[in-house]
Amino acid sequence: MITTLNVYDNLRTPKISNTTTIEQWFELIKQSAYSPLIESARPFGKKHPVYEANKTLIPAITYNFTFHTNKENANITGATGLLYIDVDDTTYDITLLDTSKVFAYYKSFGGLGYSVLVKVDGLSLDNYNSTYAAVLADLGLSKFYDKGAKKATQFNVLSYDPNIYINYDSFVFTAIETDSKLDIKNSPPSLIIKEKKTYIDRVGGIINSNTPLRFNNLNEIEFEGNYTFNWDGWAYVNAWLPYKKIQSGKRNPTLLSFLNNYVWLNPQLTQKGAITVLNWINQTKCEEPLNQSEIEGIVKSIFNYKAEGTLKPKYNWKTRKILFANQTGLSREQKLAICRELLAEKNQNNSLQKLNGIIAGWDFDKYGKIGQAVIYKNFRISKKTVEKYWSEFKDEVKQLNDNWKNPPVSSKKDAPVLRIAEDNTQPDTADRELLITNPERYRRGTQLLSFMERVELEARLAYLLNTGYTGEVQLEADDTLFVFNLQQDVKFVGFGESVAA
After folding, report:
1. Would you call 367 exposed, middle or buried from its count of C-beta atoms within 10 A (0-12, 13-18, 19+)?
2. What's the domain range around 249?
3. Residues 476 and 375 in one domain
4. What torsion do the CA atoms of 455, 461, 463, 469 make, to the nearest 10 degrees?
5. Over the stretch 335-360, which tens digit does the pLDDT of each residue have?
6. pTM
7. Source organism's superkingdom (predicted)?
């Protein structure tokens, strides 16, 4: 049994950052520096901004398999000897679990569900679904587990449960091979590509497992809810074919590129299955089909690369920035509306950030007093944009212009950061709050952040205060550096609340 597990910085990062043993991980579940942050998230519940922000600050592991560099099916290096089940149905009575067959169970991150671990011998990617279904049936969990958390590559974020149950002498399940008669209707495939279903039907029965065939690896991006977005974009691999007929001069490179990624995405595909797929594409997509020997030559070359371990994916030159979950129930029009809203918010934030950067770095010696006209006449920003968002900066501009005309005696030039005042005394109040040296700039700085970035910054600051951290700390959010001087007797005030000037 491999006791080493891969560790990741957080749920958003599939790159392996470290390794740990199961024993060490269990100790962290009992108590860790992250425990206060986990406890503070639980009252809010799933989908609440504070809950989601806190969750992204916590390290995670993968229980089922170990991986090379990044967690994805193609990078699996071996089974850990464990199988992870997420029991998210709050109606389930955990005391009904046959603990003689359970290696460990503990409260999940949210505190309402449970993470259940069992020992399994012989687990592989090919028999994963059938084994998973068999274990569910044996433990009576088929109706209570989270179907969205059954992937072989499933993340598991660090939780907090000082009463974790551990049984090192638990029963060891044996993996169920895919030709079993087991009914796995309660173990749905992790990915269904409806628009490519034609290919799946035509190659049925000639792959080495019952794992669904994939045409991209977007299902490896994990998130909760109906959609997620990443304006930096996710690089992904897809088996791509043009909509138009493939011209004679482009047949070989197009089919070679398609099959390269298709085989990489579907390691269970047999050489016979690949020939069948390529023959169908050749006959239906090529203006003039290649002869059979050329098709077999393409397949042979790809499978030679696979056998040598040199088969590498070709990433799509475009990245995906908005991603919807499978079976959301959203119509095409609703998805487009969400995309428009997200893009509008992004464009607004970009405009605000640009205008804020111009104002924050204003050269009074060169341009004089800050004003709308002098901004759009001297900087690459439109008059319409300046006028549209000017009200957001009006108070700050007035403060900057007044200070320029009437500079305070012995004042120091503002640092290019936002700073908490070192003197946190506040008369006539029972609780002491965080004071801001430049309240208007601080307000602008936090408002320029997206809501999630602001909540995440707040969660990080709250965590540091909860752990007793004192002294200066720098926290970066987006392109803004916030500098805080933390004291143990300071009460944290949320960024969304008013702060004393």
Report:
1. middle
2. 194-324
3. no
4. 180
5. 889 999 888 888 888 888 889 889 88
6. 0.45
7. Bacteria
